[in-house]
């Protein structure tokens, strides 16, 4: 009998998914099939972008890359130059202006009556690990705009466009990717079980697709580095029925785009292509509808696996109704931190239940004082208040530690205080399943029935172990 998978390597279902009904599985490449060492990749992106900005006469001396200060799932408020973390309902629970954390009073004043709506152009959702360098660069540029180091007049939204364009240029000019191809061991964290997972899926009759925004030369180099050594034939291309590069996601899933066939894999020569995709070929561009027509499949028969919450999961689910899987490697650290904190979490819940009971007794005692003719309450208001103050002294350090799990600045990626984070809500809404790496799917086999857990509601009974005595 096999031992159960550790929680951090689990596959979690928001909606029940029977893998036996899935006929084709599409994969993204970057941060999905190939996981990058985030600090190394994002530091390189940050440094390339600063060189682009320096060439445009922007002041970059003294800029530092501190990845631990930023988190996937934050939102940039382009009106105010703030980074914010919001709950699933869009209420801002933390914010920093530039690199300075806002106090509770500043937060309450600034965001009173404001909710984060991702459809509002005021807010920019940082929904992938590629945005760590973007957040770090933008926050420091806000500081420099405020202190006059970057001359105005310039709005925070214009400043974001400058930073974003510099990072885009660092990606598209090829210098950054050339650095990665030259030393992939420095940048990549390869899981050898990923190749076996893909081979098992093919054995089970699944048709596999690679659909990536990277160009052919980079895709060829990185996929060969990551997979050739693990594939019996020695070629990663034997894993996939169809390969699509330069896919221009999310447009790939929602629009019809021109498509070209790669007719010379060594030199990357292209020719226009019409009609269905053919098995074993490589294509540049195109669209998801063409994939469906080529495979003779639609909707729930296709599963797409990617790391980008919007470009890979949101649009795929909204436009095509494909089944969706989100890859989040950082989930492993978050689950491990929560497990290490588990005993303290139980104690925190017990103390909070005790506090709720004390608060209720205090409320009744205060009301009794206002009722004419009532006997004096058995407990004085002041005694109950003192008991609450004493209890808070025990709660505060535990609550602070819980709020710092995963990130001392922002706390857990998937939580916002006692609530789910806005990021978690988007995962819940658009990803049928989520997991930390592709190889975890292999642990469950291509025949797994992935059941969604029964969700809790506020009126569900409190677990006995945390109920007040």
From TrEMBL:
One Pfam match: 5_nucleotid
Domain of life, per lineage: Bacteria
Coiled-coil stretches: 341-368
Keyword Cell wall biogenesis/degradation tagged: no
Keyword DNA-binding found: no
UniProt-listed InterPro entries: HAD-like_sf, HAD-SF_hydro_IG_5-nucl, HAD_sf, Pur_nucleotidase
SUPFAM superfamilies given in the database record: HAD-like
GO molecular function: 5'-nucleotidase activity; metal ion binding
Keywords: Coiled coil, Hydrolase, Magnesium, Metal-binding
Database matches in PANTHER family: 5'-NUCLEOTIDASE DOMAIN-CONTAINING (PTHR12103), HAD-SUPERFAMILY HYDROLASE, SUBFAMILY IG, 5'-NUCLEOTIDASE (PTHR12103:SF22)
Family: Belongs to the 5'(3')-deoxyribonucleotidase family.
Record protein name field: HAD family hydrolase
Organism in which the protein naturally occurs: Jiangella anatolica
């Amino acid at each position: 009998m096999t031992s159960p998978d550790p929680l951090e390597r689990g596959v979690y279902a928001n909606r029940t998914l029977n893998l036996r009904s899935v006929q084709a599985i599409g994969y993204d490449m970057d941060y999905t099939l190939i996981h990058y060492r985030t600090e190394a990749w994002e530091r390189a992106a940050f440094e390339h972008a600063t060189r682009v900005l320096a060439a445009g006469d922007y002041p970059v001396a003294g800029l530092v890359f501190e990845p631990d200060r930023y988190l996937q799932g934050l939102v940039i408020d382009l009106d105010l130059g703030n980074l914010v973390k919001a709950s699933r309902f869009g209420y801002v629970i933390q914010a920093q202006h530039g690199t300075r954390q806002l106090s509770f009073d500043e937060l309450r004043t600034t965001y009173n009556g404001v909710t984060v709506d991702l459809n509002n152009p005021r807010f920019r959702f940082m929904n992938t690990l590629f945005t760590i360098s973007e957040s770090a660069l933008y926050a420091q540029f806000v500081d420099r705009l405020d202190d006059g180091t970057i001359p105005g007049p310039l709005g925070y939204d214009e400043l974001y466009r400058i930073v974003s364009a510099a990072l885009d240029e660092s990606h598209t000019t090829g210098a950054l990717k050339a650095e990665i191809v030259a030393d992939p061991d420095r940048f990549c964290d390869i899981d050898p079980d990923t190749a076996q997972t893909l081979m098992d899926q093919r054995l089970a009759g699944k048709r596999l697709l690679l659909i990536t925004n990277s160009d052919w030369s980079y895709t060829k180099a990185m996929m060969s580095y990551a997979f050739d050594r693990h594939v019996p034939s020695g070629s990663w291309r034997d894993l996939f029925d169809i390969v699509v590069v330069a896919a221009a996601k999310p447009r790939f899933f929602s629009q019809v785009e021109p498509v070209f066939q790669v007719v010379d894999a060594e030199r990357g020569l292209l020719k226009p292509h019409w009609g269905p995709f053919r098995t074993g070929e490589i294509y540049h561009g195109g669209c998801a509808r063409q994939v469906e027509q080529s495979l003779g499949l639609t909707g729930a028969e296709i599963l797409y696996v990617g790391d980008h919450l919007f470009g890979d999961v949101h649009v795929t689910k909204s436009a095509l109704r494909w089944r969706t899987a989100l890859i989040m490697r950082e989930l492993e650290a978050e689950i491990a931190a929560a497990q290490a904190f588990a005993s303290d979490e139980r104690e925190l819940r017990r103390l909070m239940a005790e506090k709720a009971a004390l608060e209720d007794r205090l409320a009744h005692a205060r009301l009794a004082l206002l009722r004419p003719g009532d006997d004096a309450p058995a407990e004085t208001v002041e005694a109950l208040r003192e008991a609450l103050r004493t209890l808070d002294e025990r709660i505060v350090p535990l609550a602070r530690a819980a709020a710092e799990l995963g990130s001392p600045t922002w706390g857990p990626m998937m939580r916002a205080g006692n609530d789910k984070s806005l990021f978690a809500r988007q995962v819940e809404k658009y990803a049928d399943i989520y997991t930390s790496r592709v190889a975890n799917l292999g642990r469950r086999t291509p025949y797994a029935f992935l059941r969604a857990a029964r969700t809790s509601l506020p009126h569900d009974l409190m677990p006995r172990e945390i109920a007040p005595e």
